[in-house]
TrEMBL record:
Residues 6-296 form the Inosine/uridine-preferring nucleoside hydrolase domain. CDD domains: nuc_hydro_IU_UC_XIUA. This is Ribonucleoside hydrolase RihC. GO terms for molecular function: purine nucleosidase activity. It comes from Agathobacter rectalis. The lineage of its organism: Bacteria, Bacillati, Bacillota, Clostridia, Lachnospirales. It holds the Pfam family IU_nuc_hydro. Gene3D superfamilies: Ribonucleoside hydrolase-like (3.90.245.10). One of its GO terms (biological process) is purine nucleoside catabolic process. InterPro entries: Inosine/uridine_hydrolase_dom, IUNH, Ribo_hydro-like. Keywords: Glycosidase, Hydrolase. NCBIfam families: PRK10768.1.
């Protein structure tokens, strides 16, 4: 069976680093392109981090640099969670700069999508600024996109604002444009991210699983997405897990809107599970995950890396 072609849009980012590794070393996915966007840290830093990861993983995937700012919102990073560099805790090799395309991420995505013989799956694990611009500038790409499988949003509460998740809160307007694009979307939000945990004993096992496992262990020591002792949240791996192990999830098809004008709730994903808004469903929302099975899946996936 041919591998599923995907594009990962990312802001590495400690949890991004592991999600990217799992995708690259899986038998089922063909990562055609990695695009970067400002989020956890600045665009320059997340791009450098993506190139460092590809050097470390020994994988030659083209990288295209995207947007340095959200469409309208003021840019606020998450260096408090991921460290100043965005991947604090491990001494990576130099970035593989020869993988960096001269094209802007939006143009590179358009080229890869339109050249593909098979519809492409887009995997945003960051703010969706690049994706929103892609649809605005090149709506023809929608005809060759299988679906969007994103990490972001929340059915319940936030991790950036009271009701807003970081990726959506970083660029709410972009998220609204993507949810309104008509392209099939799968949303893996905080409700599953909070249960997608690496526990201390998992970290000790992972440490012995080769150089990626050792790297993960050292990054985990610095990662503030949860706590080393009560569980670290592997948010971005939830999107990859949907592609590779969808049976982990409970999924509900419903309407998702993005609040843009709330004085206290801007960036909130309004997940209308009961249909109060009487709008056509526009997303499959992962409302639950089998946390124990995720832990096993995650460790097995890391064990397949170098
Ligand atoms: O809310 C979690 C998301 O924000 C993850 O993608 C993490 O990497 C940060 O970007
Ligand atoms: Ca991310």
């Amino acid at each position: 069976m041919s591998k599923r072609p995907i594009i990962i849009d990312t802001d590495p980012g400690i949890d991004d680093a592991l999600a990217i590794a799992i995708a690259l070393f899986s038998e089922e996915l063909d990562v055609k392109l990695i695009t970067t966007v400002a989020g956890n840290v600045s665009l320059d830093l997340v791009t450098e981090n993506a190139l460092k990861l590809l050097k470390f993983y020994e994988k030659d995937v083209p990288v295209a640099k995207g947007c340095a700012q959200p469409l309208l919102a003021e840019f606020v990073d998450a260096s408090d969670i991921h460290g100043k560099s965005g991947m604090e805790g491990y001494d990576f090799p130099e970035p593989k700069t020869e993988l960096l395309l001269q094209e802007h991420a939006v143009n590179a995505m358009r080229r890869v999508i339109m050249e593909s013989d098979e519809p492409i799956t887009i995997v945003p694990i960051a703010a969706m600024t690049n994706i929103a611009l892609l649809f605005a500038l090149y709506p023809e790409v929608k005809s060759n996109i299988r679906e969007i499988v994103m990490m972001g949003g929340s059915v319940t509460r936030g991790n950036k604002g009271v009701m807003s998740e970081f990726n959506v809160a970083t660029d709410p307007e972009a998220a609204a444009m993507v949810f309104n694009s008509g392209v099939p979307i799968v949303m893996a939000g905080l409700d599953v991210g909070w249960k997608a945990l690496v526990m201390p004993q998992d970290s000790e096992e992972i440490k012995k699983m080769g150089k990626v496992g050792d790297m993960a262990y050292h990054l985990f020591k610095h990662y503030r997405g949860g706590s080393f002792n009560t569980g670290l949240k592997m948010y971005d791996s939830c999107a990859i897990a949907y592609l590779l192990c969808p049976e982990l999830y409970t999924v509900e098809e419903t309407y998702v809107g993005v609040e843009l004008n709330g004085t206290m709730t801007t960036g909130c994903t309004v997940v209308d599970l009961k249909g109060y808004l009487k709008k056509k469903p526009n997303a499959k929302v992962c409302t639950d995950i089998d946390g124990e099975k995720f832990r096993e899946w995650f460790k097995q996936s890391i064990s397949r890396c170098i």
